[in-house]
Amino acid sequence: MKTRHKSTLVCSHNTAARLVAATEWLSSYPADAEILILSATKESGDEFVRNAALAAGARFGLTRLTLGQLSSVLAAPVLANTGRAPASTLVLTAVAARAVHLLIAENALSYFEPVATRPGFPTAVARTLEELRMNAADLSEIAALARGGTDLAALAKRTDRELEDGRLADRAAVFQAALDATEDTALTSPNLLGLPLLLLDILLTSKLEADLIAALSKRAPAVFATAARGDERTIGFLEHALDCKATVTAVSGQTNSLSSLKLHLFENSKPDKSELDESVMLTSWPGEARECVEIARSIQREAATRECGRV
Question: Which fold has domain 7-73+174-248?
Answer without folding.
Answer: Rossmann fold (3.40.50)
